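Crash report, auto-generated. Payload:
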Amino acid sequence: MMDIPLNTDSTPPVTLPTPQRRSRLAFTRSDRFRRNATWLLMASPALIWIIIFKYVTLFGTWIAFTDYKVRRGIFGSDFVGLDNFRFLFATDTALRATRNTILLNVLFISAGVVFALIVAWMLFEVYSSRRTRFYQTMMLLPRFISWVVVSYFVFGLLATDNGLINTALRNAGLQPVGWYATPGYWPLILMVVSLWAGVGIASLIYLSGMLAIDPQLFDAARVDGANRWQQFRNVTFPAILPLVIINLLLSMAYIMNADFGLFYQVTRNQAVLYPTTDVLDTFIYRSLIVTKDVSMAAAAQFYQSIIGFGLVITFNWIVRRIERADEPLSLF
Amino acid sequence: MATYSQELRERKRRDTDAVLGWLARNAVHIVLLIISLLCLIPLLLIISASFTDEIALTRNGYTLIPSEFSTQAYATIFRNPTVIIGAYAITIFVTVVGTTIGVFMMSMLAYALSRPDFVLRKPLSFLVFFTMLFNGGIVPYYVLMTQYLRLQDSVAALIMPYLVVAFYVLILRTYFATIPTDLIDAARVDGAGEFRIFLSIALPLAKPAIATIALFTALNYWNDWTTALYFIRDPHLFPLQYLLYIVQSNIEAMQLQSAVGNISTGPVPTQSARMAMAVLATGPAAIFFLFFQRYLVRGVTLGAFK
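Recovered output after restart:
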């Protein structure tokens, strides 16, 4: 049935490694060497993958400082200093993409937290394993659908000629809307799609946090005459607040990264919509594949990565400052 | 000590609470039901459109119940099934091979990193972890794959990206670390080698975590279209989701062309046929979902989501 820890103790739902002691057996030096060698051998396939695709690729960031020519390779191309960055910020496009990335992420994150908290609270208040499981199944369903298919049904809803919404508007005697030609609607449309896609998982995280609260606290609150809302305000919410804050801060750390699928597929990559939907990830894609300006793409990528790195470090530092020693929640 | 009147007042309050509580509970159930349906309706919309007669779809628009039931769309697809079967074969192959190899690689690394006696535990853990902080991103990856490894237009390009996910490695490591050392020592006393211990003790004990990671990895592969967008130009290697995308964007391009130059576009998959393809592409994942949902729920408790 449910795999959520039921409300028996007050530990947070964050799993932590139970520190295992070292082996009790006495080993000879050659034993120890052989064991370590086996472990290293076992680790090596994945390690080699990581080194090639995550560390060797770091040399590729050098492209951002060169006039990259495919034939001459990364280190054969001419060094141009910060010229690529100067070009990048000479037009409004990169700044617009940065603004869209940050503002839309802030919108999605804040709306997402509020919506997920409300849903989690509702699930918690009427908790019964059979029905909760049904709701969860439904709300997790979007996690299994690719962005391509999501774009198909968003089109089914918003298509200008025969979309469900325009059909309804026409039937109501109203003027149909050219959704795919009006950038102004898209922050809201994308927010709804992102809420739809994310509510299942986010509410599940908060629900498992709520289920971990000591039920005696609720009994005590009830004896004191607290109603449901007061119980939420004074017991439930404070108990999961650390979880909420940590989630918020960690999503803020990745605020420079947009979900490429959401912005590329759901908008059908319509250039008309770029003023409100072009984000850094779609901009980098276009520079790399469509206009084939690798140096420009690399400059935008480096700019995104380095600011992202700074944000991760900063927000992790904040999380470390507020976390309690007995429940470390920060990334590192 | 409670007086009689206090008790009376208390009981009255409880009765009102019971009625209000009943009302509120049902209201909450209704709201949750609506949200659940909103998660389902988009899929129903696609399924319904795939079973709607093409002309009716153009005339009446998308509806939740087919305005004129027809299996024409599926018949069209299965009349010339080579393209979609090819895409299915690619996607299934990539998903099965990628998930198997990836989960095995990640588990071996995670197991090694979970051993307290492993001398390289700390530096290697940091090596894995640092990739979550700083990421070169797609541009260097693209240049490496196309200019140096020359893997464009190959199945390997489709398998490569999700083989190792640092976050999944850390989750698996956490899980492996809970296996008691005494258990492993017992196997050592019985003369089992380290790899043997991993295969016959650690892996079976970590089955819930491994199943969760396998599910996520399989989903990553099944729903992947970005890799093909960057690296695949050969139509024989199109995975299912990318085929869906190409079909839709080709139609838009053709519509644009015919609007501009009035070029005859030849047979184009109809709207309902495209929806039928979307149903065929999502169906297996949805069925998979119903069976393995509990691993997804467990993934939440394991902290598998950021």
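Post-recovery validation: The mean pLDDT of chain A is 85.
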